[in-house]
Amino acid sequence: MQKSISLLGSILRPVRFLVVAFTCALLLFSNAFPAAAIESYQSNPTEATDQLLETQRQTDEVAKSAPLGLKETQQRTSGGGLNEVQGTADAEKMNRPENSQEAVSVEEEVSNFLKKVTGNK
Length: 121
Prior knowledge:
single chain; mainly alpha; 4 helices; about 0% strand; elongated; Low temperature-induced protein
């Protein structure tokens, strides 16, 4: 019995080494190449700084003043804004049902992927 255990241990030793080596290589490459987001939108660093500065100025004003009441909050967000400070800043850039008519849902993406994998077109 002890002989079979030592035989099993000697067989598993190279496998254990390979698992450790693969794990180390995986950690190394995942840290070296964290995200392949090359195709995503690359914004210009100076883009929308004026809007950001205005939002920051309004945030500072709100932070220094007393909390807004219900009527003030409703008044500031009545134009379809996100909140009482940001207002409608970059609202046209956000994905909403109105501007996402040709967007593909997750279910559709999975369904299309499964059809490609199984060969059903």
